[in-house]
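Input record (Table S2, row 251):
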Amino acid sequence: MNVREAAASLLETASEREPLSAEWADLDVDTAYAIQDEALRQRRARGETLVGVKLGLTSRAKQQRMGIDAPLLAWLTDAMVLPAGVPVPPLIHPRAEPELVFVMGRRLAGPGVTAATALAAVDRVHGGIEVIDSRYADYRFTLPDAVADNGSSAYFSVGPVGVPPSSLDLSLEAALLEVDGQIVDTATGAAVLGHPAEALALAANVLAARGLALEPGWLVLTGGMTDAVPLRGTSRVAAHFSHLGSLTLAT
Ligand code: OOG
Ligand code: MG
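Output record (magnesium ion complex):
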């Protein structure tokens, strides 16, 4: 199997499959990012538009659940946007997680980007919910597997309230995750690498190593603040933020 075939096969996957590393034993992180980039190329060839990036595995809750202690980066396209009021389409084994979402005002290029310089390039911050859906059985994967699978990306929804990041202390911004009327988990922005701006800086610095930058208007999902909740058997999941409003997904 080569990079192009791996990307095409992951893009086509509509039910649980074995991890890529089961058949590609020496798959490394760099090759996995090449597969992710090739999958983006194939998505664009079928008409999707790049709208930004997401970070994954930036909180301890997520790292512990997945057994991986390093963050990852993945691509977001317009086909992954779930507009308000649209129910989550059928997926393999979807899970939802609350995230803080930046909208870039200016281009942000690494290396050497700090949390402070990163925040200065942001136009506004929103609350959001990401719906992940690993193509791998039981979400069992290595870091290269998850990178090749574009960070388990499926859909995401951005809440209606956006404010300049300077108007809030994002490390203290709280999210309550509600499933069918029960609060099942809570976290603040500090769960994300100490401050979500650290995740933004990381994204700029990791992209710089590949000759890329965060572009004006891009969305940046900074990573699940809490553990993700399975959507099977649920009918409604909501995230309530302390200053960034609420959003609800019908599941
Ligand atoms: C990998 C994707 C992680 C996040 O926010 O941590 C992610 C996974 O958990 O399947 O999107
Ligand atoms: Mg996520």
